[in-house]
Amino acid sequence: MRLKAALIGILLSAGPIGPAFSAEPLSLDRLTEPEIALLTSTRQALVPLVDARKREGTVSTITFEELYARLTPEQIAFAESFRKIEPKEIGGASRRLPAPAPETQFVRLDRQVVLREGKKVLLDTQVLPSGAHEAYERMMAAMEADLGRRLLVESGYRSPAYQLYLFLFYLPKHDYSVRETNRHVALPGCSEHGSPAFQAIDFISAGGINGEDRPEEFEELQEYGWLHARAREFGFQLSYPRGGESAFEPWHWHWHWEEPRA
Q1: Which end of the chain is less enclosed by CB atoms within 10 A, N or C?
Q2: Strand ranges (DSSP E) for 81-178?
Q3: CATH code for the domain in which residue 128 is found
Q4: Pure H helices in 57-114
Q5: Are residues 64 and 144 in the same domain?
Q6: Nearest alpha-carbon partner for 124 in 114, 107, 136, 110
Q7: Is residue 260 a part of any domain in this protein?
C-alpha cells in the first residue's frame, strides 16, 4: 500500500501522466471497446468508496488521492486522460475555472427533504462556500416572501475529483461519447460546481422536480419564473440557457457576485 501511495503521489505531483503510464488519446466521439471495458472496471472499483462517502455526507469533497487509491496504474492513467482533455477539443461551453482557495469556508446542508409521490425523501448532504450559501439563503427568503415556497440544493460544491467520477459515471448514458457527455456534465476542472468563484447550484423543488429527464418540468415551475425575474439581485445567473453550446439546464444557476445592473 505504501508503494501505491507513493505512485499516486508521483502521478499527481507530476501533473500529466508520464511515459510509464501514457495512454493513447481518448476516442472523443465514442470510446473504443477496450476503453469501455476499462471505464467499466474503473467505475466498479470506485462505486463502494463513493457510496460510503455519500452515507457520510462527505462525497462532494473527495480527493484524487482517495479515488486513485482504489485503482490500478492502468485505471489511474485512464482516469487522468480525462483531466488532460482541453475544453476546446470537445466544444461546448466548458472552460477552465479557478479552484477553491485554501481558505474557502464551506457550509454543510443536511436534512433537506423533498416530497416524491407523497413520500418524504432525504436529499444527499451538500456543501456550499459560505458566500454562495449566504446569497442562496437571502434569495430563498425573498422567494418565500413572494411565493410561499423555496428551492432546495440538489447539488452544490463538487470537488474536481468527484466531478471526474461523475463524468465517468454518466458516459454510458450518452453512448460513451466524451463530446456528448460534456454537453451535460463538465470535465473536472471545468465545472462551476467545483469553482467557488462561479459556484453553481442545481436546484430541486420541494415537490421533487429537478428537470433532469425532462427540463420542461423545471422550466414550468413558478419558482423558475421567479429566478428569471429576481435571481440577478442576489448574484445568481442561469448558466446554460436554451439554444446555447451546452444542453439546456434550467435548474443550474451559478453565483458570481457583481453589482446589479440598473
Answers
A1: C
A2: 106-109, 113-116, 119-122, 126-129, 151-155
A3: 3.30.1380.10
A4: 64-68, 73-83, 87-90
A5: no
A6: 110
A7: no
118 and 156 assigned to the same domain: yes
* Residue 194: domain span: 106-160+187-255
The number of distinct structural domains making up the chain is 2
Q: Is 108 helix (H, G, I), strand (E, B) or coil?
A: strand
Largest pairwise CA distance in the chain: 60
> Residue 201 is placed in which grid cell?
447550484
Can you give the pLDDT of all 262 residues of the chain as single tens digits?
443 444 455 445 444 443 343 457 899 999 999 999 999 999 999 999 999 999 999 999 999 999 999 999 999 999 999 999 999 898 877 899 999 999 999 999 999 999 998 999 999 999 999 999 999 999 999 999 999 999 999 999 999 999 999 999 999 999 999 999 999 999 999 999 999 999 999 999 999 999 988 999 999 999 999 999 999 999 999 999 999 888 999 999 999 865 444 4
How many beta carbons lie within 10 A of that of residue 215, not counting itself?
17
Kindly report the pTM of this predicted structure: 0.87
How far apart are alpha carbons 89 and 72 in whole angstroms? 27
Beta-ladder partners of 203: 153
Using an 8 Å Cβ cutoff, are 82 and 26 in contact? yes
Burial status of residue 67 (CB atoms within 10 A of its CB: 0-12, 13-18, 19 or more):
buried
Residue ending a domain, choose from 87, 117, 142: 87
